[in-house]
Design brief:
Blueprint lengths: L19 E5 L2 E5 L25 E3 L17 E3 L2 E3 L6 E4 L6 E4 L15 E9 L16 E7 L9 E6 L5 E7 L7 E8 L8 E7 L3 E6 L2 E7 L7 H4 L3 E3 L11 E9 L5 H17 L4 H5 L24 E5 L11 E10 L5 E9 L6 E6 L8 E6 L3 E7 L4 E6 L11 H8 L16 H6 L18 H7 L13 E3 L2 E3 L1
C-alpha cells in the first residue's frame, strides 16, 4: 500500500455511479457499479492514512478563494495569488510584479503541526511560470526564488531562516538555513543543478534529519548533504512558513505549485520514487499540460513521449479490439467494465483490455484513469460504446479505471463525470462563461484552459475568445485576412 501523500479530490465530490477497475502488481479488482465515494479527510487525520507515513498536511489548492489546506486549515494571510488549470487539478500561481505570498502556521492553535524544520519531508510538484533556466535558453527567475520557506534570511542571523530555493539564473536549487543567535551561523546543506523549462512540472522531494539531508528531483536522488543542525528558533517559526515566496511577498518563485505535502519523518527513496512514478504519467497524459506534451524531457525528467488526443469526444487512447454480444440495461446510466485483463509489455507499459457492458445502444461512455485513488487525480482516456472490446496502454504498473455515463445535468455539453473528475466544474451549476462571454465548456471541448482567452495556440493571429466568436478552431491555423477602412472602401 502506498502512503497517502495527498487527500483525494474525489472525497469532496458527490457520489458518481461509475464502474471501477484496479489493476496492479498482476492482480485485478472489480467493483461493478461501485459508488466512487471516499470518506472525507479532516482535522489532521486525512481519511485513512498509509501504514507507514502520515502527512502532517497537504495542499491540492482546490480552494483558490480561501486557499485552505486539504485539512481545512486556513492560511495566516495571503495576497495577489492566482491559480491555473495546468498541472493536475488546480495549481497555485505565485508570479506577479506586486507583493504576493501564501503563509501558513507551522503549528495550528489546536496543536496540529504543519511543518517541522529539524526532521521531516517536503514534497511538491513545481513548474516555472514566466521563466526557464539560463542553461535551457531562458533568463531564470531573476532573483533568489523561494519555493518553501520559514523565517527570513538576514546577514547576521538575528532572526532564523529555513529555505528551499532557486538561484536567479534558475540553474541550481538549494536548501539552506540560519539560526537566530546573531552569530552569522549559516549552513548551505545541499545544492543541485537544474535544467527547467516554462510550464514543465518537476517533482521535488526534500528529506532531512539530524544525520543527513537528501534532495530528490523527479523521483531520483539528485544530491545529499549533512544533517540538520542549524535551523530557525521559535520566534521565527511562530510567524509560519510560505509556499512560493517569502513573508514579505518578494523573492517569488514565479511559478506553479501542485500537490504539496509535508511529513514529520523522512520518506524513504522507494516511496518517493513510487509517488513520482504513479503521478508523472498523469501529468504527461493530461491535455492541459501542453508544455510537457510537446517538449522533450528536461535533464531532470525521465524520457517519456505522450500521445495527444482530442479531449471529451473521440476514441482518445482507446484501441478497438472487436465486438461481443451487448448486454443492455434498463437505462443509459447503468454501465460497467467486464472481461478485463492486464499485460506488462517489454517497454514497461501496462496494456489493459476490457469490455464495456450495460447501458444502451447509441451512447458513448467516457473512460477515465488514475494511478492512485488516494491522489484523486484523473485523466480522460477516450470514449467507447457498450458491447465493444477496447485496449489502452498505461505508462504505469498500477491503474484504476472509471466509466462515466452520458449524463449532463446542466446541459453545458460536458458530461457530469468529466466535469467532476477532469474539469473540476460543478455539473449542477449553471453553465459558466468568462469575461469575454466564452463558455467554459468551449475551452474544455477544444483542449484549452478556461483562462486562455487571450492566447493564440495555433498562431493564426486570432486569440481564443475571437476564435469562439468567429466560429473558427482555436487549435488549427485556418488563416485570416486583415482589413483596413479608408473612407467608404475596404481593402483586404
Amino acid at each position: 500500500m502506498k502512503p497517502q501523500a495527498y487527500l483525494s479530490l474525489l472525497s469532496r465530490l458527490p457520489a458518481l455511479k461509475l464502474s471501477r477497475v484496479f489493476i496492479g502488481a498482476g492482480f485485478l479488482f472489480l467493483a461493478a457499479n461501485a459508488q466512487a465515494q471516499l470518506p472525507p479527510g479532516g482535522g489532521g487525520g486525512g481519511g485513512s492514512p498509509g501504514p507507514t507515513y502520515t502527512p502532517l498536511n497537504s495542499w491540492s489548492f482546490y480552494d483558490p478563494t480561501n486557499w485552505t489546506s486539504d485539512y481545512s486549515n486556513a492560511p495566516v494571510s495571503f495576497t495577489n495569488l492566482n491559480f491555473s488549470y495546468l498541472g493536475l487539478g488546480r495549481s497555485l500561481v505565485v508570479d506577479t510584479n506586486q507583493a504576493a505570498w501564501l503563509r501558513f502556521n507551522t503549528v495550528e492553535t489546536n496543536g496540529a503541526t504543519n511543518l517541522t524544520v529539524q526532521q521531516g519531508s517536503v514534497l511538491f510538484w513545481f513548474a516555472p511560470g514566466s521563466w526557464a533556466s539560463t542553461n535551457a535558453g531562458g533568463t531564470g527567475p531573476g532573483e533568489y526564488a523561494r519555493l518553501f520557506e520559514a523565517g527570513a534570511y538576514t546577514t547576521n542571523s538575528n532572526y532564523g531562516w529555513w529555505s528551499l530555493y532557486v538561484d536567479p539564473a534558475g540553474a541550481n536549487i538549494y536548501f539552506s538555513a540560519q539560526t537566530n543567535d546573531n552569530s552569522g551561523n549559516y549552513s548551505n546543506y545541499l545544492s543541485a543543478p537544474i535544467f527547467w523549462t516554462t510550464n514543465y512540472f518537476h517533482f521535488v522531494a526534500l528529506t532531512y534529519t539530524a544525520t543527513n539531508t537528501l534532495l530528490y528531483l523527479d523521483g531520483t536522488l539528485a544530491t545529499n548533504g549533512p544533517g540538520v543542525t542549524v535551523y530557525p528558533g521559535q520566534n521565527a517559526l511562530t510567524n509560519g512558513f510560505c509556499i512560493g515566496g517569502d513573508a514579505a511577498g518578494t523573492n517569488q518563485s514565479h511559478g506553479l505549485f501542485n500537490n504539496v505535502g509535508t511529513y514529520n519523518v523522512p520518506l524513504d527513496s522507494g516511496t518517493i520514487q513510487s509517488i513520482f512514478s504513479q503521478t508523472y504519467p498523469l501529468y504527461m497524459m493530461s491535455p492541459w499540460n501542453l508544455a510537457m506534451d510537446s517538449l522533450s524531457s528536461a535533464s531532470s525528467t525521465p524520457s517519456f513521449t505522450s500521445t495527444s488526443f482530442s479531449a471529451i469526444t473521440g476514441a482518445g487512447y482507446l484501441q478497438w479490439q472487436g465486438s461481443v454480444a451487448a448486454i443492455n440495461s434498463s437505462n443509459a446510466y447503468t454501465v460497467w467494465i467486464a472481461n478485463q485483463t492486464a499485460t506488462v509489455t517489454t517497454n514497461g507499459q501496462t496494456v489493459i483490455t476490457f469490455t464495456i457492458q450495460g447501458g444502451l445502444d447509441g451512447y458513448y461512455y467516457d473512460v477515465f484513469a488514475t494511478a492512485a485513488l488516494q491522489s484523486g487525480i484523473w485523466v480522460w482516456l477516450g470514449q467507447g460504446m457498450h458491447g465493444n472490446i477496447y485496449s489502452v496502454a498505461i505508462p504505469t504498473p498500477n491503474a484504476f479505471l472509471e466509466l462515466g455515463t452520458p449524463q449532463d445535468s446542466n446541459g453545458d455539453g460536458i458530461t457530469d463525470a468529466y466535469s467532476r473528475l477532469i474539469a473540476d466544474i460543478d455539473p449542477n451549476a449553471p453553465p459558466q462563461s468568462d469575461a469575454y462571454g466564452v463558455p467554459y465548456a468551449w475551452y474544455i471541448e477544444n483542449g484549452l484552459t478556461v483562462t486562455s482567452a487571450l492566447q493564440d495556440p495555433d498562431y493564426d493571429g486570432l486569440m481564443n475568445f475571437q476564435e469562439y466568436k468567429y466560429g473558427t478552431r482555436p487549435q488549427v491555423s485556418e488563416g485570416f485576412s486583415v482589413w483596413t477602412t479608408l473612407g467608404n472602401s475596404s481593402i483586404p
